[in-house]
């Protein structure tokens, strides 16, 4: 591969990429969680939650690709295995199928965790003068804040 000269020094690119890997893992784990709950939700709010979870996991699928491509743009390999994601993610997997109201609470907490991860990445991106990563992460943070708010409003 050729030298990367995009105005971000190598040390900053590596630090930002490492933080983005955590964000990718959190996002992918949340994607799986949302998809799992979409498939398995039951109860009085079935239709509303089924559709909401679908909307969220579809947005997350796009986000996963955007984050992975940003990592590649910075010259690092993007993780792509369950093992790597489980090591990097701060979101805990859910065993079994919880009741619908618990699914909502779990997803709200998971979105809040992704927001915290976004804040960590954003700090590093700003310090490294990486406006592209900062913009991506800021946009993601706003989406997760909105999703968390909507989920909390249902509790």
TrEMBL record:
Name of the protein described by the UniProt record: DNA starvation/stationary phase protection protein
Ferritin/DPS domain ranges (all copies): 18-155
PANTHER family, per database record: DNA PROTECTION DURING STARVATION PROTEIN, GENERAL STRESS PROTEIN 20U
Superkingdom per UniProt: Bacteria
Protein family: Belongs to the Dps family.
InterPro entries the record matches: DPS_DNA-bd, DPS_DNA-bd_CS, Ferritin-like, Ferritin-like_SF, Ferritin_DPS_dom
One Pfam match: Ferritin
């Amino acid at each position: 591969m050729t030298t990367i000269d995009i105005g971000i020094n190598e040390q900053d690119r590596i630090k930002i990429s490492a933080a983005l890997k955590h964000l990718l893992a959190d996002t992918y784990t949340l994607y799986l969680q949302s998809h799992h709950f979409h498939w398995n939700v039951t109860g009085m709010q079935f239709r509303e939650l089924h559709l909401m979870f679908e909307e969220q996991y579809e947005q997350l699928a796009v986000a996963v690709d955007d984050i992975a491509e940003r990592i590649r743009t910075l010259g690092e390999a993007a993780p792509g295995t369950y093992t790597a994601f489980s090591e990097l993610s701060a979101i805990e997997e859910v065993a079994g199928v919880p009741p619908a109201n618990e699914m909502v609470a779990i997803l709200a907490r998971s979105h809040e965790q992704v927001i915290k991860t976004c804040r960590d990445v954003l700090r590093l991106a700003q310090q490294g003068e990486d406006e592209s990563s900062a913009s991506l992460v800021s946009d993601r943070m706003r989406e997760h804040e909105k999703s968390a708010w909507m989920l909390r409003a249902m509790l």
